[in-house]
Amino acid sequence: MNESKKMKKSITLPFDENSRRLIIILVVLLFITGITKSSQFLNVGNVQSIGKQLTEYGLMSLGMGICMLSGGIDLSTVYIANLCGISAGLIIQSNTSGVAGIIFACVVALVVGALCGIFNGFLVSFLNIPPMLATLGSYELYMGISIVLSKGSTVSANGQFNILSAMTIFGIPLPFILFIICTIILTWIMSKTSFGNKVYLVGTNAKSAKFAGINVKKTTLCCYMISGILSAVAGLVSLSRLNSAKADFGTSYTMQTILVAVLGGINPDGGFGNIPGIAFAVIILQTLSSYLNQFPAISNYYRDMIWGIALLAVLVFNIYISKRRAKKAASK
């Protein structure tokens, strides 16, 4: 009993060893960029661009992280975001009531995201479909619905929704502030509430959690609902930034969200990791991506290969750390 309490305390700390390691990596990366590309990289315009670009897959990565902490995975985040963006775009197109119409479109998008997440959670928790297969099937469903709604074409917001991506507060892009707010809220939920503890326990051992009196199905359902809502927010940010939404936009984001979650210290088997680590991982990856853009000789075709190598390297490193931690625990 005492060991489980210790484990719960260690995994719900806002900043763990992995987060501190990521902060060091970020500082080193910024130091390198400052030396090699100081004028082109470390300027206000480029930093603001980084803040805008990371928000979309950053929000989806937070949702992916929540699902992975519960022992699952959500491969449909990108397609929920696209569906929500298309839904909002269609409402904005057909509505002439100005601000009220935009607010209504945002509410509809958030409701659609929540419902998609709940459906994913239902497939996983009540029908006991493996999370990977459940969300693989649902992403095809959501993409199909998006294609039907958009008639296979791009849905434009007609320039009526660009305020979200264009607005800055003290020079900080509003989308990035939104990402930070979501990170803070989720950090508090996962580290300071009973729901957060339940998620960690379900992810560690669902059967034990059930015997401990935790409603595993409800907890899992809530995790996927949160992921759906975060995807909806990402879809709205994308709609604002691009002034359009498309059924197959951002397909590469799926792998990036998994990479970010794992790099952020989330155990793919569930039960270990924290939210700040995901936020630091997002910032590191976007900073690295923007830095690579400064070198025309490096083709964008190498980008996926670099992300794949990084994902495998992080997985190997995390396995090594886990084994070393297990040996230390066994020797005590």
Automatic annotation (TrEMBL):
Keywords (A to Z) from UniProt: Cell inner membrane, Cell membrane, Membrane, Transmembrane, Transmembrane helix, Transport
What residue ranges carry the coiled-coil annotation?
A: none
Q: Which Pfam families match?
A: BPD_transp_2 (PF02653)
By its UniProt entry, which CDD domains does this protein fall under? TM_PBP1_transp_AraH_like
Which residue ranges does UniProt annotate as crossing the membrane?
62-92, 99-123, 129-149, 161-190, 218-237, 258-285, 305-322
Q: InterPro entries in the record, alphabetically?
A: ABC_transp_permease (IPR001851)
Membrane topology field? Multi-pass membrane protein
Compartments (UniProt record): Cell membrane
This chain's protein is named ABC transporter permease
Q: Is Transmembrane tagged as a keyword?
A: yes
Native species: Agathobacter rectalis
Repressor: present as a keyword of the record? Answer: no
Which is a Gene Ontology cellular component entry for this protein? plasma membrane
- What GO terms are given for molecular function? transmembrane transporter activity
